[in-house]
Each structure stands twice: as C-alpha cells, then as structure tokens.
C-alpha cells in the first residue's frame, strides 16, 4: 500500500506521526527475545516433563498478541489512553484484591489467577495503567489548583503498594516506587516532601528487610555470598565467563541446563553465554535507546499529562530492565523479575506491549490540537 504525508487513512496518519526509530528499537528487542526464548526454554521444558517447544509455542502466541496490542494502543489519542488507563487500573485493583482468595500459589507467593490453561498476573498491568492515571492526577492539579493532586497520588500509590505486598512482590513495589517518585518529582514536589519521602523510602526498605524472611535472605546472600545459597547467581556469572566476547554459539550454552529460571529471570545469562558480551551490550543499547529516545520526544512537550505519562512509562521500563540485568551480573540482590520483551511470560509480555503502545501513542507528533481536553 502506497501512501504519502497527506494520507488521511488511520494507518497513514499513524505512520507519519509515530517515532519510527522507537519502533525499530522495540521490534529489535522483540526479535532478540524470540531467539533467546527459543534457545533457553527447551531444556526447562524437558526438566518439567513437557514438550521441548512448549514454551516456544506459547511465547510465539503471546508475541503476536503483544504486537497487536501495542499497535492498536499506539493508534489511540491521549484522551483515549487516559480512559484506557483508568479502566485498566480499576480492573487491576479488583483482581489484586481477589488474588489472596483465588490466586495460585507459586514459591510462597500468590501473584497469578488461572484462567483456563493461561495464568494472568494483574500486577503487570497495574504498572502502565498507574503511570498514566498518576500523570492525569498531577495534570489536574496544575489546571485546578484546588484539586488535591498530591494526596490522590499518595493514596493511589499506597493502595497499589499494599496490594503488591500482600502477594508479596517486592520487585514490583520497587518498580512502582521508582515510577511514582519520578513523576512526583517532575510534578513539582516541594523540597520538604522530597526529604520526607527519602526518609520514608529508607524506612520502607528496612521494614521489608525485617518483615519478609526471603528479602532478608537475599540481601544477606548478596552482601556476604558465603552466608547462603547463591546457586543461580553463581551459575549466571559462570555463563558470562564462559561466553566471553563472542559467545559459544547458538544452542551451545550450558547454563540453561542447570538454571530453572533460565528462560525468564536469567535469560540475559543465556544471551551472555551463547552470544557473548558484545551481544549483551547491544541489548543494553536497545534498552537505553528506547528510554533516551522517548525522553527526547517529550523534551519540548507542552502537554503536562503527556510528559508525565511518558516519563512514568519509561521509568518502569528502565527500572525493570536494570533490576533484571543487575541481578544476572550480581550487581543487585536476587529478585525474580522478567527482562522486558526478552524473558518468557505471557502477562509480562502483553503488559509491556501495552505500556510501550501507550508510550508510542503519546509521543506521536500532534499538530495544532490538544486531545487531552
């Protein structure tokens, strides 16, 4: 189909207003993820007694679904993104409340609701929707000075954290906190509030360390590797050492034979062993490019809602990426968290696609109109 800049079709308007460099970077990660899951998952499938390509087929299905979701969401206008986020946040809250009663327990946590053969993780969808809703709340405060935007944002954050801690899911709490803190800061947070929230954050981390035994164990193991079991991290580091600069070659890695989470939490280790350090740096470049390019797109943005939404979406995307890769190279305490677009996982993949679709929609060039009103 041929079209030029004067095209009035829905796809034509989308193509000439969306950031195509962001599209290339995102699809680059999607392609890399498809290769890594294909390389890492067969050995995991065999260990649990299912068909070797069980996870590969499921990942391919969710990849197609994710691409469709991302494309459809990227077609929306900012006001439609806002409405979608409000609805998504409400549904996420309802499902998170239902988790303690109907959720499936895995490794001592209830994070999934089984729907037939599929599992849904509501917290994954909470993140992008909360980012957009918080941006809307802060923008309302700017337009209507009497609106208690700060307090509404604090309440939304507190409810989200409470529901996440019930599971418990500390990694998701960290991601949501980083996003919320950045948006609050950009919204004009007073210095006194900054000081108070920093103290509260330190107190929260100490409280998590004292209350949750698994958090205490992971931090103690990170600070003193000889104090406990660091099997997965040790194997991960061995994988990077074995891979060197250029890797051992596709399918030649050994870490996936021993790591139970090689297709999810430690997929970056598989990339290091089979494709090498240079390939891992390319992956880091893609993640960095998406975050930096997205921020550049909103540098001169006049719409406060759009600016805060994109900043929040990119904050959670970048934070999740840093945590996953940091754990894999032993720069951060062990924490189960997927690597966006690269790790196996249906809910994670679709939710990330939803967030990136929102980001693509909000960073599209808009001329002579303000669709958020």
Offer a concise description of the structure.
With 373 residues, this protein is mostly helical. 69% of the residues lie in helices and 3% in strands. It has a domain at 78-338.
Mean pLDDT: 83
Beta-strand segment tally: 3
Give start-end ranges of low-pLDDT stretches.
369-373
Judged by helices, strands and strand pairing, the structural class is mainly alpha
The number of helical segments is 13
Q: Roughly what fraction of the amino acids lie in strands?
A: under 5%
Biggest β-sheet: strands ordered side by side in the sheet: 1-2-3
Instruction: Specify Rg, calculated over alpha carbons.
Output: 21 Å
Q: Portion of residues in helices?
A: 55-70%
- Please state the overall shape, judged from the principal axes of the Cα atoms: globular
What is the CA-CA span between the terminal residues? 34 Å
What order do the helices and strands follow?
HHHHEEEHHHHHHHHH
Main sheet record: 3 strands, antiparallel
Please explain how this structure is put together.
By secondary structure, the chain is mainly alpha-helical. It has a domain at 78-338. Helices cover 69% and strands 3% of the residues. The protein is built from 13 helices and 3 strands. It has helices at residues 10-17, 20-47, 54-74, 78-102, 122-143, 149-166, 170-186, 191-211, 213-223, 231-243, 267-297, 304-328, 346-362, and strands at 104-106, 109-115, 118-120. Strands 1-2-3 form a 3-stranded antiparallel β-sheet, with helices on one face. Helix 7 (170-186) runs antiparallel to helix 12.
Q: Tags for this entry?
A:
single chain; 373 residues; mainly alpha; 3-stranded antiparallel sheet; 3% strand
